Amino acid sequence: MTQQPAGWRKSTRSSNNTACVEVGRIGDGAAVRDTKDRGLGYFTADRQQWQAFLDAVKTDRFE
């Protein structure tokens, strides 16, 4: 049986529901989906990948 993400939360950076993502827990990592079209599915990241992404966001490496 495939594990499903749980505890979906909408990003606090989302504005007016036009560019929203949600993050859920899956195993020891995270799942991310588009709030506007949840039926498209989600992508997953393991714990190390998710932490690297968060670190990059926090240090403005995407600006």
Q: What labels would you give this structure?
A:
alpha+beta; flat; single chain; 63 residues
What is the rounded Rg?
A: 12 Å
Quaternary structure classification: single chain
With strands numbered from the N-terminus, the spatial order across the biggest sheet is 1-2-3-4
The topology string of helices and strands comes to: EEEEH
Indicate the overall shape.
Answer: flat
Q: Approximately how much helix is present in the residues?
A: 10-25%
Count of runs of 4 or more consecutive helical residues: 1
Runs in which pLDDT lies below 50 for 5 or more consecutive residues are none
What's the total number of strands? 4
Give a quick account of the main beta sheet: strands, pairing sense, barrel closure: 4 strands, antiparallel
Total discrete domains: 1
Beta-strand residue fraction = 25-35%
SSE class: alpha+beta
Distance between the termini: 40 Å
Mean pLDDT score: 88
